Amino acid sequence: MSREPDPAVLYPEVAARGSLAAALQAAAADQGLVLPVAVTPSDPLRHATFTSVVPHRHSSYVAARHHERSWSILGCSNDRLMICGNTKDLRDLPRVIRDWAEGAGLDEIGQAAPFDLLTGRFEVADKNPVGVIASEWQWLLKGAVDADWPQYRALIKTAHAQPTLRRLYPFTSHWALSFSNTPDYPFSPPFVSIDSPWGTGGYTIREWWNGPALHHVTTPAEAIAIAVDRIPADLRQAPPQGPAQDS
């Protein structure tokens, strides 16, 4: 196991400023920006937090990696990750932080960032279930497209194309796809978990992740047909209606 480098050696320009927050503020000043960035006392050279005028945006921070020069930025909205990206250039971050802090839309933030940033979710300010479920499907679809896993991508796309499943909240555990009628814990009792093959092999259907295998099928269409047949009667109803997206 490689020894963790001294952060002052890995990030000398940050150490010279005394903290990551101070280094970010200095980079922002060079760009004519002012940032609401705060020092993280437990790890000042590798971690800093920032706030937003938008009340449902929270848990926002920049973190430096421990073994190689790189910074990660994350921002959550109503307990769900909205922005997440990595860059090797600290100067890429001030504009993203400023836009998030001042309430810019996610598309605007993503277009301004010189690195891949958006998770695929959209913000649902009032946390209405219909909007949160639609946002989660959008996140899963983006992740499936980005993943180097054709069978998983086909499973997610096939599941999303099924209206009865699309009304349910999709979630994964160890890349196995499951569904709930609520987007918040506790999820409804499990009725299906679908494992995607890696490379060759078929889809495995279980009642819950890591449960006994119930079926093995070769196509995502077959797997989704079984999932639909297993939906309990009380989950076949649409969730409470509400606005689908926060504009």
TrEMBL record:
One of the Pfam families matching this protein, by short name? DUF6193
Q: Which InterPro entries match?
A: DUF6193
Q: What is this protein called?
A: Uncharacterized protein
Q: Which organism is it from?
A: Actinomadura harenae
